[in-house]
Design brief:
mainly alpha, two-stranded antiparallel sheet, 2 strands, globular
Amino acid sequence: MERTNPNFNKLVHRMNRLHVLHRLYINQAAIGNGLYFGQLPILELVDEHDGCTQKELADLLQVTAPAVATSVKRLQRHGLLQKIADEEDLRCNRISITEKGRQQARRVRQAFDAVDARMFKGFSEEDCADFCAYFDRAIGNLAVGEYQGRSFFSLLEQSKQEQAHHHRTREESLSD
């Protein structure tokens, strides 16, 4: 069995640690501003694509409609999004962001941007461009086949589905 370069292990460990730290701060910023992870992109997309349907929103995020439905319902319940019946097709609802939703999205975006600014404090524009290029190369090496061209959210959803499937399969085999 061929061993991987020990530097790869160090790099992957650091990437994973960075990811977890970033996710912790982003979650804190989101929750501190009344949202959950993943809701800001929905608010921002609806703001950019006012009057879109849940299906169109799911397509933009590259996730399933049921995955979007739960978030839209929660955001609607909190007065951040509203559904309006389509004038031409009453079976179809159009989604719009409310003024409250727009203001909350702006606050959360500022909080997220502050986390990112903190993370890259002391980095020059050239450092950031190099960093981005390195990540693009690594992503390009892994984003092949069924993963090619997939959004962050669709990859995250697939990961959750695979974990759930593995968990169900394992539970079934243990009960036999």
